[in-house]
Specification:
2 domains, 7-stranded antiparallel sheet, Jelly Rolls, single chain, 52% strand, mainly beta, 6-stranded antiparallel sheet
Length: 294
């Protein structure tokens, strides 16, 4: 009898530790700090003795820098990973979850997360790849989805005499007058922004042009412009346009509609000769910006 098999340490208040030995090597200890398995046996097996098949077992294993939780397959082999914790000097460095021994979800350094298994596979740290994602019961938007729409309108009647030339120059932000604007903060720098606008009104001079141009913030050059010729001062129309561009960043920006004639007066939101229309439900000029995700 030279090798210990089981040792109980105690004091006047009872047992303080239970130590189990295999081949004179302490393999497991139970004390006030909990259960410890070491010295070549860093695992804990949980077995359902009432189970009729081999897969009624689970195991927790300390394996190098990883703590693994496994379940047995039908043959009873501990070959299936369920959950892994990778450790470093300051604690856990990564968490991985498995189904059918295939990694399905990971939490990586700096808060990055990866969900894999859907069509397209692993997209790398910081991504979620799944067949469907929901937040509070609502689907998470994917490529081509509309992230947001910003809209503004004005029913103000305005008489504009400041002209916008109808030639081959870029309209400037001191031509015509600003009649409506909207601010948007893109959610993704790679999104496409679709700008649409409409300007209602009439001109005082036959066969002159009305122009509606889009400007951003304080930039002098227009980013888009449309024009039309009114053949009669008795005509009232809505001049519409659209323009698409890359968001190019996530900073807030304001898109503005400026409009003006080439001569005479442009009556914004009015009929010929500046006549008011439809009281409080009269015509409106407007701008809408839609963000489409990449």
């Amino acid at each position: 009898m030279v090798a210990d098999a089981y040792v109980v340490n105690f004091n006047p208040n009872g047992a303080t530790a239970h130590r189990f030995y295999v081949g004179d090597v302490e393999a497991a200890t139970f004390n006030v700090n909990g259960a410890q398995f070491r010295s070549g046996f860093p695992r804990l097996d949980l077995i359902d003795t009432d189970g009729a098949t081999g897969f009624n077992r689970a195991r927790m294993v300390q394996n190098g820098n990883a703590l693994r939780f496994l379940t047995a397959n039908n043959a009873g082999s501990m070959a299936y990973n369920d959950y892994l914790v990778f450790k470093g000097a300051n604690g856990a460095t990564r968490h991985e979850w498995y189904i059918d021994n295939q990694k399905k979800f990971e939490i990586a350094p700096l808060g990055g997360a990866v969900a894999v298994g859907a069509a397209g596979g692993d997209k790398g740290t910081g991504s979620l790849n799944a067949q469907a994602l929901y937040v509070n019961g609502k689907p998470v938007l994917g490529s081509g989805a509309v992230a947001q729409i910003k809209y503004a309108q004005s029913t103000t009647s305005t008489d504009i005499t400041n002209i916008i030339p109808h030639d081959n120059t870029i309209p400037q932000n001191n031509a015509g007058e600003e009649i409506v604007a909207v601010t948007i903060t893109p959610t993704n720098a790679s999104s496409t922004l679709i700008i649409e606008w409409g300007v209602h009104g009439s001109l005082s001079v036959n066969k002159t042009y009305q122009t509606a141009a889009i400007f951003v913030n304080t930039t002098a050059d227009a980013i888009a412009a449309v024009a039309r010729e009114m053949t009669s001062s008795k005509t009232e129309e809505v001049l519409v346009g659209s323009h698409g561009l890359s968001a190019g960043g996530i900073a807030a920006r304001t898109y503005k509609v400026r409009t003006g004639p080439t001569a005479g007066i442009f009556y914004v939101n009015q009929a010929r000769a500046g006549e008011e229309l439809f009281s409080t439900v009269g015509p409106a000029s407007w701008i809408k910006v839609t963000e489409v995700l990449p």
